Amino acid sequence: MSQITVSPSQTQFAAEDSETILSAAIRQGINLPHSCQSGVCGSCAATVVSGDVVQSAEYDDYVLTEEEIAAGTVLLCCTQARGDVVIEMPSYAGHKALTVRTLPARIADIETRGDMAVLTIALPKAPPFVFHSGQYMEILLKDGSRSYSIANAPHESGTLEFHVRLREGGLFSPQLFDGRLKKGSIIRVRGPLGSFYLNEDGAHKPLLLLATGTGFAPIKSILQHLAHTQPNRRVHIYHGARTAAGLYDEAALQQLLAQLPNARYTPVLSNPDEGWTGATGRITEHILNDYKDLSDYEVYACGSTGMVLDCKTALTTQAKLPTNAYFSDAFTAHV
Ligand code: FES
Question: b or e along 77-96 (b: 16 or more beta carbons within 10 Å of the residue's beta carbon)?
Protein backbone atom coordinates (compact mmCIF):
# COMPACT_ATOMS: atom_id res chain seq x y z
CA MET A 1 0.00 0.00 0.00
CA SER A 2 1.36 3.43 -0.95
CA GLN A 3 0.40 6.87 0.23
CA ILE A 4 -0.25 9.35 -2.57
CA THR A 5 -0.06 13.08 -1.90
CA VAL A 6 -1.43 15.46 -4.51
CA SER A 7 0.11 18.92 -4.50
CA PRO A 8 -0.76 21.79 -4.20
CA SER A 9 -4.12 20.71 -2.68
CA GLN A 10 -2.28 18.35 -0.26
CA THR A 11 -4.94 15.72 -0.85
CA GLN A 12 -3.85 12.30 0.40
CA PHE A 13 -5.09 8.80 -0.33
CA ALA A 14 -3.85 5.21 -0.35
CA ALA A 15 -3.20 3.12 -3.45
CA GLU A 16 -2.75 -0.64 -3.79
CA ASP A 17 0.17 -1.89 -5.87
CA SER A 18 -2.26 -3.51 -8.28
CA GLU A 19 -4.31 -0.40 -9.14
CA THR A 20 -3.47 2.76 -11.01
CA ILE A 21 -3.14 5.95 -9.03
CA LEU A 22 -6.23 7.28 -10.83
CA SER A 23 -8.36 4.21 -10.02
CA ALA A 24 -7.32 4.43 -6.38
CA ALA A 25 -8.36 8.07 -6.24
CA ILE A 26 -11.71 7.51 -7.95
CA ARG A 27 -12.44 4.44 -5.79
CA GLN A 28 -12.08 6.65 -2.72
CA GLY A 29 -14.23 9.44 -4.09
CA ILE A 30 -11.33 11.74 -4.97
CA ASN A 31 -12.26 13.24 -8.30
CA LEU A 32 -8.82 13.85 -9.85
CA PRO A 33 -9.09 15.30 -13.36
CA HIS A 34 -9.64 12.50 -15.89
CA SER A 35 -11.74 11.50 -18.83
CA CYS A 36 -10.99 8.38 -20.93
CA GLN A 37 -9.16 6.30 -18.26
CA SER A 38 -7.33 4.59 -21.10
CA GLY A 39 -4.32 6.72 -22.02
CA VAL A 40 -5.99 8.61 -24.85
CA CYS A 41 -7.05 12.06 -23.66
CA GLY A 42 -4.20 13.31 -21.44
CA SER A 43 -6.60 14.78 -18.83
CA CYS A 44 -4.97 12.84 -15.98
CA ALA A 45 -1.41 14.08 -16.65
CA ALA A 46 0.52 14.90 -13.47
CA THR A 47 4.15 15.45 -12.53
CA VAL A 48 5.90 13.08 -10.16
CA VAL A 49 7.68 15.22 -7.54
CA SER A 50 9.06 12.34 -5.47
CA GLY A 51 8.73 8.58 -5.12
CA ASP A 52 8.76 5.65 -7.52
CA VAL A 53 6.08 4.83 -10.06
CA VAL A 54 5.76 2.27 -12.84
CA GLN A 55 3.88 2.54 -16.10
CA SER A 56 1.21 -0.15 -15.94
CA ALA A 57 -0.53 0.30 -19.28
CA GLU A 58 0.27 1.53 -22.77
CA TYR A 59 -0.87 4.98 -23.81
CA ASP A 60 -1.05 6.73 -27.15
CA ASP A 61 2.29 8.26 -28.20
CA TYR A 62 0.92 11.70 -28.98
CA VAL A 63 -0.53 12.21 -25.47
CA LEU A 64 2.77 13.16 -23.80
CA THR A 65 5.71 14.87 -25.50
CA GLU A 66 9.29 13.71 -24.90
CA GLU A 67 9.93 16.91 -22.95
CA GLU A 68 6.97 16.19 -20.67
CA ILE A 69 8.13 12.65 -20.05
CA ALA A 70 11.66 13.91 -19.33
CA ALA A 71 10.17 16.39 -16.82
CA GLY A 72 8.49 13.54 -14.91
CA THR A 73 4.97 13.87 -16.36
CA VAL A 74 2.93 10.66 -16.20
CA LEU A 75 -0.65 9.68 -16.96
CA LEU A 76 -2.25 8.64 -13.70
CA CYS A 77 -4.59 6.20 -15.50
CA CYS A 78 -1.53 4.28 -16.74
CA THR A 79 0.68 4.55 -13.63
CA GLN A 80 1.00 2.58 -10.38
CA ALA A 81 2.86 3.68 -7.26
CA ARG A 82 5.70 1.72 -5.72
CA GLY A 83 5.93 3.27 -2.27
CA ASP A 84 4.84 6.74 -1.18
CA VAL A 85 4.57 9.24 -4.00
CA VAL A 86 4.04 13.00 -4.25
CA ILE A 87 2.52 14.26 -7.47
CA GLU A 88 1.80 17.75 -8.68
CA MET A 89 -1.56 18.40 -10.32
CA PRO A 90 -2.42 22.11 -10.17
CA SER A 91 -5.73 21.53 -11.99
CA TYR A 92 -7.14 19.57 -9.02
CA ALA A 93 -9.08 21.81 -6.66
CA GLY A 94 -8.79 19.52 -3.61
CA HIS A 95 -11.53 19.87 -1.05
CA LYS A 96 -13.32 22.32 -3.33
CA ALA A 97 -13.92 19.49 -5.81
CA LEU A 98 -17.43 18.06 -5.68
CA THR A 99 -18.09 15.03 -3.52
CA VAL A 100 -18.54 11.75 -5.36
CA ARG A 101 -21.57 9.84 -4.07
CA THR A 102 -23.11 6.43 -4.70
CA LEU A 103 -26.88 6.67 -4.87
CA PRO A 104 -29.91 4.55 -5.61
CA ALA A 105 -32.01 5.98 -8.43
CA ARG A 106 -35.43 5.19 -9.85
CA ILE A 107 -35.90 5.07 -13.61
CA ALA A 108 -38.39 7.85 -14.38
CA ASP A 109 -38.48 7.38 -18.15
CA ILE A 110 -36.90 5.50 -21.05
CA GLU A 111 -37.58 6.96 -24.47
CA THR A 112 -36.11 4.99 -27.38
CA ARG A 113 -35.34 6.67 -30.70
CA GLY A 114 -33.95 4.11 -33.14
CA ASP A 115 -30.78 2.74 -31.53
CA MET A 116 -30.75 5.56 -28.97
CA ALA A 117 -32.41 5.67 -25.57
CA VAL A 118 -32.93 8.82 -23.56
CA LEU A 119 -32.88 7.60 -19.98
CA THR A 120 -34.15 9.78 -17.14
CA ILE A 121 -33.55 8.79 -13.52
CA ALA A 122 -34.88 10.31 -10.32
CA LEU A 123 -32.46 10.73 -7.41
CA PRO A 124 -33.24 10.77 -3.69
CA LYS A 125 -34.51 14.25 -2.77
CA ALA A 126 -32.03 15.00 0.02
CA PRO A 127 -29.30 15.99 0.19
CA PRO A 128 -29.44 17.65 -3.26
CA PHE A 129 -27.12 16.15 -5.84
CA VAL A 130 -24.55 18.69 -7.06
CA PHE A 131 -22.62 18.45 -10.33
CA HIS A 132 -21.06 20.60 -13.04
CA SER A 133 -22.43 20.76 -16.59
CA GLY A 134 -20.39 18.30 -18.64
CA GLN A 135 -19.64 15.71 -15.94
CA TYR A 136 -20.57 12.05 -16.11
CA MET A 137 -21.94 9.29 -13.87
CA GLU A 138 -21.15 5.62 -13.55
CA ILE A 139 -24.09 3.25 -13.66
CA LEU A 140 -23.15 0.43 -11.29
CA LEU A 141 -24.05 -3.07 -12.44
CA LYS A 142 -23.54 -6.56 -11.03
CA ASP A 143 -20.68 -7.26 -13.43
CA GLY A 144 -19.07 -3.86 -13.76
CA SER A 145 -20.09 -0.32 -14.56
CA ARG A 146 -20.78 1.91 -17.54
CA SER A 147 -20.18 5.65 -17.77
CA TYR A 148 -22.60 8.15 -19.29
CA SER A 149 -22.46 11.93 -19.46
CA ILE A 150 -25.24 13.83 -17.76
CA ALA A 151 -27.38 15.55 -20.43
CA ASN A 152 -29.32 18.02 -18.27
CA ALA A 153 -28.21 21.06 -16.30
CA PRO A 154 -27.34 21.20 -12.58
CA HIS A 155 -30.24 23.50 -11.69
CA GLU A 156 -32.67 20.71 -12.64
CA SER A 157 -31.59 18.80 -9.57
CA GLY A 158 -33.51 15.69 -8.70
CA THR A 159 -33.35 14.05 -12.12
CA LEU A 160 -30.52 13.12 -14.45
CA GLU A 161 -30.79 12.47 -18.18
CA PHE A 162 -28.45 10.18 -20.13
CA HIS A 163 -28.18 9.37 -23.84
CA VAL A 164 -27.46 5.67 -24.30
CA ARG A 165 -26.65 4.08 -27.65
CA LEU A 166 -27.65 0.43 -28.03
CA ARG A 167 -24.62 -1.84 -28.18
CA GLU A 168 -25.56 -5.40 -29.06
CA GLY A 169 -24.39 -7.80 -26.36
CA GLY A 170 -23.60 -4.85 -24.11
CA LEU A 171 -23.60 -4.96 -20.35
CA PHE A 172 -26.14 -2.19 -19.83
CA SER A 173 -27.69 -0.65 -22.95
CA PRO A 174 -29.73 -3.71 -24.15
CA GLN A 175 -31.60 -3.74 -20.82
CA LEU A 176 -33.16 -0.39 -21.73
CA PHE A 177 -34.45 -1.74 -25.04
CA ASP A 178 -35.62 -5.25 -24.11
CA GLY A 179 -37.71 -4.36 -21.07
CA ARG A 180 -35.40 -5.74 -18.37
CA LEU A 181 -35.17 -2.17 -17.09
CA LYS A 182 -38.31 -0.08 -17.20
CA LYS A 183 -40.02 2.87 -15.56
CA GLY A 184 -39.85 2.33 -11.82
CA SER A 185 -36.79 0.02 -11.87
CA ILE A 186 -34.10 0.88 -9.33
CA ILE A 187 -30.45 1.22 -10.37
CA ARG A 188 -27.33 2.45 -8.58
CA VAL A 189 -25.26 5.36 -9.83
CA ARG A 190 -22.01 6.97 -8.74
CA GLY A 191 -20.72 10.44 -9.42
CA PRO A 192 -20.33 13.19 -10.40
CA LEU A 193 -17.10 12.29 -12.18
CA GLY A 194 -14.79 13.81 -14.74
CA SER A 195 -13.01 17.08 -15.26
CA PHE A 196 -14.78 18.02 -18.49
CA TYR A 197 -17.10 20.82 -17.49
CA LEU A 198 -17.81 24.44 -18.25
CA ASN A 199 -15.08 26.70 -16.92
CA GLU A 200 -17.03 29.35 -15.05
CA ASP A 201 -13.91 31.58 -14.82
CA GLY A 202 -13.90 32.09 -18.59
CA ALA A 203 -17.46 33.38 -18.46
CA HIS A 204 -16.91 36.25 -20.87
CA LYS A 205 -15.45 34.21 -23.73
CA PRO A 206 -17.42 33.05 -26.74
CA LEU A 207 -17.75 29.28 -26.99
CA LEU A 208 -17.55 26.58 -29.60
CA LEU A 209 -19.30 23.38 -28.50
CA LEU A 210 -18.41 20.34 -30.60
CA ALA A 211 -20.03 16.90 -30.47
CA THR A 212 -20.18 13.70 -32.39
CA GLY A 213 -22.88 11.11 -31.70
CA THR A 214 -23.93 10.89 -28.06
CA GLY A 215 -21.14 13.34 -27.23
CA PHE A 216 -24.06 15.72 -27.60
CA ALA A 217 -25.22 14.77 -24.07
CA PRO A 218 -22.76 16.93 -22.06
CA ILE A 219 -23.03 19.67 -24.68
CA LYS A 220 -26.79 19.73 -24.07
CA SER A 221 -26.10 20.02 -20.34
CA ILE A 222 -23.81 23.00 -20.98
CA LEU A 223 -26.39 24.64 -23.27
CA GLN A 224 -29.14 24.24 -20.67
CA HIS A 225 -26.84 25.71 -18.05
CA LEU A 226 -26.07 28.67 -20.33
CA ALA A 227 -29.77 29.22 -21.04
CA HIS A 228 -30.29 29.38 -17.28
CA THR A 229 -27.27 31.50 -16.32
CA GLN A 230 -25.85 33.39 -19.34
CA PRO A 231 -28.40 33.30 -22.15
CA ASN A 232 -26.65 36.05 -24.13
CA ARG A 233 -23.27 34.34 -24.34
CA ARG A 234 -22.03 33.75 -27.88
CA VAL A 235 -21.97 30.07 -28.68
CA HIS A 236 -21.67 27.98 -31.84
CA ILE A 237 -22.62 24.31 -31.70
CA TYR A 238 -21.35 21.77 -34.24
CA HIS A 239 -22.91 18.31 -34.06
CA GLY A 240 -21.40 15.65 -36.31
CA ALA A 241 -23.21 12.41 -37.17
CA ARG A 242 -23.20 9.88 -39.98
CA THR A 243 -26.80 10.45 -41.04
CA ALA A 244 -29.68 12.68 -39.92
CA ALA A 245 -30.83 9.92 -37.53
CA GLY A 246 -27.65 10.59 -35.54
CA LEU A 247 -28.96 14.09 -34.74
CA TYR A 248 -31.26 12.37 -32.32
CA ASP A 249 -32.19 15.27 -30.03
CA GLU A 250 -33.04 18.02 -32.52
CA ALA A 251 -36.37 18.98 -30.93
CA ALA A 252 -34.77 19.66 -27.53
CA LEU A 253 -31.87 21.46 -29.19
CA GLN A 254 -34.19 23.75 -31.15
CA GLN A 255 -35.99 24.63 -27.90
CA LEU A 256 -32.67 25.53 -26.32
CA LEU A 257 -31.59 27.60 -29.33
CA ALA A 258 -34.79 29.62 -28.96
CA GLN A 259 -33.60 30.62 -25.46
CA LEU A 260 -30.07 31.54 -26.62
CA PRO A 261 -30.26 34.56 -28.94
CA ASN A 262 -26.52 34.53 -29.72
CA ALA A 263 -26.29 30.81 -30.51
CA ARG A 264 -25.56 29.27 -33.92
CA TYR A 265 -25.97 25.64 -34.81
CA THR A 266 -24.26 23.67 -37.57
CA PRO A 267 -25.19 20.00 -37.96
CA VAL A 268 -22.66 18.11 -40.11
CA LEU A 269 -23.31 14.72 -41.71
CA SER A 270 -20.48 12.49 -42.88
CA ASN A 271 -22.79 10.19 -44.85
CA PRO A 272 -25.66 12.53 -45.73
CA ASP A 273 -29.17 11.29 -46.41
CA GLU A 274 -30.67 12.01 -49.82
CA GLY A 275 -32.05 15.52 -49.89
CA TRP A 276 -29.80 16.81 -47.07
CA THR A 277 -28.85 20.39 -47.87
CA GLY A 278 -26.78 21.12 -44.75
CA ALA A 279 -23.06 20.77 -44.07
CA THR A 280 -21.29 17.52 -44.94
CA GLY A 281 -17.91 15.94 -44.19
CA ARG A 282 -16.00 16.45 -40.94
CA ILE A 283 -16.78 19.15 -38.44
CA THR A 284 -13.10 20.22 -38.27
CA GLU A 285 -13.20 21.54 -41.86
CA HIS A 286 -16.31 23.57 -41.19
CA ILE A 287 -14.92 25.15 -38.04
CA LEU A 288 -11.70 26.13 -39.84
CA ASN A 289 -13.80 27.62 -42.61
CA ASP A 290 -15.94 29.60 -40.19
CA TYR A 291 -13.18 30.75 -37.80
CA LYS A 292 -9.65 31.93 -38.59
CA ASP A 293 -8.83 33.33 -35.15
CA LEU A 294 -10.03 31.54 -32.01
CA SER A 295 -7.51 33.20 -29.70
CA ASP A 296 -10.32 34.61 -27.54
CA TYR A 297 -12.54 31.50 -27.55
CA GLU A 298 -13.05 28.44 -25.39
CA VAL A 299 -13.77 25.16 -27.12
CA TYR A 300 -15.52 22.14 -25.55
CA ALA A 301 -15.42 18.93 -27.56
CA CYS A 302 -17.04 15.62 -26.71
CA GLY A 303 -17.39 12.50 -28.80
CA SER A 304 -15.16 10.15 -30.78
CA THR A 305 -11.45 10.14 -29.98
CA GLY A 306 -10.72 10.93 -33.65
CA MET A 307 -12.81 14.10 -33.66
CA VAL A 308 -11.55 15.25 -30.27
CA LEU A 309 -7.89 14.90 -31.24
CA ASP A 310 -8.31 16.21 -34.82
CA CYS A 311 -10.05 19.32 -33.59
CA LYS A 312 -7.45 19.95 -30.91
CA THR A 313 -4.60 19.76 -33.40
CA ALA A 314 -6.37 21.72 -36.14
CA LEU A 315 -7.75 24.51 -33.97
CA THR A 316 -4.60 25.08 -31.93
CA THR A 317 -2.25 25.02 -34.95
CA GLN A 318 -4.44 26.61 -37.63
CA ALA A 319 -6.89 28.86 -35.80
CA LYS A 320 -4.80 30.29 -32.93
CA LEU A 321 -6.78 28.58 -30.18
CA PRO A 322 -4.68 28.52 -26.96
CA THR A 323 -4.08 24.90 -25.88
CA ASN A 324 -5.46 25.67 -22.42
CA ALA A 325 -8.74 26.86 -23.92
CA TYR A 326 -9.53 23.44 -25.39
CA PHE A 327 -11.52 21.12 -23.10
CA SER A 328 -12.44 17.64 -24.21
CA ASP A 329 -14.01 14.35 -23.28
CA ALA A 330 -13.12 11.51 -25.62
CA PHE A 331 -15.52 8.58 -25.64
CA THR A 332 -14.07 5.10 -25.75
CA ALA A 333 -16.66 2.53 -26.78
CA HIS A 334 -17.60 -0.23 -24.34
CA VAL A 335 -20.08 -2.96 -25.08
S1 FES B 1 -5.29 9.70 -20.47
FE2 FES B 1 -5.74 9.24 -18.41
S3 FES B 1 -7.81 9.75 -18.21
FE4 FES B 1 -7.42 10.01 -20.34
Answer: bbbbbeebbbbebeebeeee
